[in-house]
């Protein structure tokens, strides 16, 4: 699978792990990243991921997350087509940065965009895109089910 992983997923392991949901999402993110590392899934990186991560206030976390770009199979740059598609998504109720992520995933031909953001998930589903937008837990359950 070609995956676009939203930055909130890369940050999930750094969150306080006292809630069951956060723990489950963290475990799923680690499993998905293992699938990327071993070549089972392909990672798409983008200007939007780079930009958002560059603003991270904690340098060690920012640097650790940035290393994943090296394992990506494709980089989606900021250009006019990305801006234009993001504007369409923004007009459809998607927050500006999320619209850039969604446009990047679509332009990069991702099969699935992975995010932990419930609002983003709900709004993206309303758009009726071919691109699937999933939380990491159901994505992992889907690809690891035997049948």
Fold and architecture overview:
- The chain has 147 residues and is an alpha/beta fold.
- The chain is built from 8 helices and 5 strands; from the N terminus they run βααβααβααβαβα.
- It has helices at residues 7-11, 20-37, 47-54, 59-66, 80-91, 96-107, 118-126, 136-144, and strands at residues 2-5, 42-46, 74-76, 112-114, 132-134.
- It has a 5-stranded parallel beta sheet.
- Helix 2 (20-37) crosses helix 8, helix 3 packs antiparallel against helix 6 (96-107) and helix 5 (80-91) crosses helix 6.
- The mean pLDDT is 96.
Radius of gyration, CA atoms, in whole angstroms? 14 Å
Distance between the termini: 17 Å
The first-level CATH class is given as: Alpha Beta
Uncertain segments: none
**Main beta-sheet strand count, sense and barrel state:** 5 strands, parallel
Structural class: alpha/beta
Secondary structure tally: strands: 5
- Fold-level CATH name: Rossmann fold
Q: Name the CATH homologous superfamily.
A: 5'-nuclease
3D shape: globular
SSE string, helix = H, strand = E? EHHEHHEHHEHEH
Q: What's the helix count?
A: 8
Kindly report the average pLDDT value.
96
Helical content class:
55-70%
Largest beta sheet: strand ordering: 3-2-1-4-5
Known CATH architecture: 3-Layer(aba) Sandwich
Instruction: Tell me what portion of residues adopts beta-strand conformation.
Output: 5-15%
Count of domains: 1
